[in-house]
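Hey, I'm writing a tutorial for new members on how sequence and structure tokens pair up, and I'd like a real worked example in the thread rather than a made-up one. If someone can provide the structure for the chain below, I'll link this post from the tutorial.
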Amino acid sequence: MNYGSQIFVVLEYAEQGNLKWATRDQAMLVTRNRRLVKTLRLTDNLLEVTNLDSDPLIHPDRILNDTEWTSTSSWIEKGQRRAATFISRFSLADPGG
């Protein structure tokens, strides 16, 4: 894809609402409601995403224009733990265009 390296990923587990995807080199990506929420065995890892029970992606058909969702993510970057709060704003695409 785009002349980059290829990666082989398989769905390994589905448990407690999470989908756990394994790569050939034993890394794991965890998704919930189509959102990446955790990674394991990468150089830098996403540790946690909070407020998942209020994620609008749980019911995408109910999202209205200007819906907002606030979450906090924590991750490891170059050996340092980091965290940030994110505000996601949703807008609907024009179905006619």
